Amino acid sequence: MLPTCVPHLTEGPPITDALPNLETRRDRSLQLALAAARTAADNRGQDVAVLDMRSITPEFDYFVIATGNSRRQLHAIGDEIDHTLEDELGDHRLGTEGYHESRWILLDYGSVVIHLFDEETRRYYALEDLWGSAQRVALPWEDK
Prior knowledge:
The protein is an alpha+beta fold. Helices cover 35% and strands 22% of the residues. It has helices spanning 22-42, 71-88, 119-125, 127-130, and strands at 46-52, 62-68, 95-97, 104-108, 112-118, 135-136.
């Protein structure tokens, strides 16, 4: 029996109700991935792709990949993605890599990992080929 001095532990729904179910989490991951992809496209990112990684790895749900023409453009795309996902959608970036070198900027949002490349580096690492079994997600704003 719980002591009476801790009434909050006996009231309200079970703690497991505070955790989002798997379907809700996956919907949220897709929302973040599509928002990042749209932001990259709106900021003149090229060859924007979203890869569904759920059947390949439990580490994350989606890759977003885009190419920029210059260091300045890659920074602008990354900054705008951060603004969209953090300020507008309330998510928090867990980490970033490559920002100063600006050939491959990685933004880690946990379930969504965003890769921003210059053209040469994207061709060299060829993530779409490396993760070739990943399904490409249709981007709703592109013509079919």
